Amino acid sequence: MGGRTNKSFLVSSGAFQAVVRVNSPVSIKLGINRRREKKILGLLEPTGLIPKVFFIDDELLVSEFIEGSCLTDKSLKNSHIMESLSKALAVVQAVKMIDTGPRNYLDYCQQYLSQLSDKTVSPAVVKQIKDAAKAVDAAGWEPVICHHDMVPENIIINKEGLFLIDWEYAALGHPGLDFLRLYGPDYASPDHQNGSLRALFKVKQAMDKLWLAVQL
Fold first, then answer.
1. Residue 106 binned pLDDT confidence (cut-offs 50, 70, 90)
2. Computed from CA positions of residues 43, 46, 48, 50, in that sequence, does the dihedral angle turn out positive or negative?
3. Which CATH number fits the domain that encloses residue 93?
């Protein structure tokens, strides 16, 4: 079980079940900070929106197994689910993380770009990515805990409610990014300027493509 980054295993003893995640050996290459993930999980666990963490270090994460169904693109169009998800993200964004600076999206993209050649990403595309990241970094937004990989597969729903998993890319970031990843460029909020959102969507697309490129 698990995605492309790590290897995950379901283990059980009697009625007890847990997920053992073996972290990728190239976490730094992929832009993952395991200590930051540990801190964020500790802050979010009291919300009840994430699986309980039994053990975590730089190599392993052992967490509660949440039985349920992952959301799909179709289910995101359900108004009840959208409302529940928006409330869950509002709870996450209300959790304060001190002594940590916000993500600099230009630096983050540059970390990926430094691993790629001009043949993989042309200078013209590099400039577009950097210009968009600079615009996002320069915009006036209040950093919040941001998942940065809020795809339907990382959202589980069951009779107890809604749970958010796979926080390894999380950091203090733009409050609109998780919504943009879920709902696309049509997402709008009175708290954000459309120009800023357009630049943020370009950065989101760039991070997705660069993440894939560094693994080839």
1. very high
2. positive
3. 3.90.1200.10
Nearest partner of 201 among 161, 165, 163, 174, judged by Cα = 174
- Does the predicted model carry a pTM greater than 0.85? yes
CA pair distance 96, 167, nearest whole angstrom: 16
Residue 94 lies in a domain: yes
Is residue 65 one of the residues assigned to a domain?
yes
In a domain? residue 2: no
How far, in Å, CA of 147 to CA of 44, rounded? 11
What confidence tens digit (pLDDT) does each residue in 132-181 have?
999 999 998 999 999 999 999 999 999 999 999 999 999 999 999 999 99
Instruction: Give domain status of residue 1, yes or no.
Output: no
> For residues 129 and 72, what is the distance between their CA atoms, to the nearest angstrom?
29
**Whether 175 contacts 144, CB under 8 Å:** yes
Q: Which of 138, 145, 136, 126 is nearest to 206 (CA)?
A: 126
Beta partners for residue 158, in sequence order: 161
Among residues 104, 209, 92, 214, the alpha carbon closest in space to that of 146 is found at: 92
Q: Which domain range does residue 206 map to? A: 7-213
Which residue type, as a one-letter code, is found at position 193? Q
First to last CA, the chain: 21
Report residue 58 as tokens.
């730089």
Residue with tokens 């990926």: 112
Q: Domain total for the chain? A: 1
The 10 Å Cβ neighbour count of residue 87 is 12
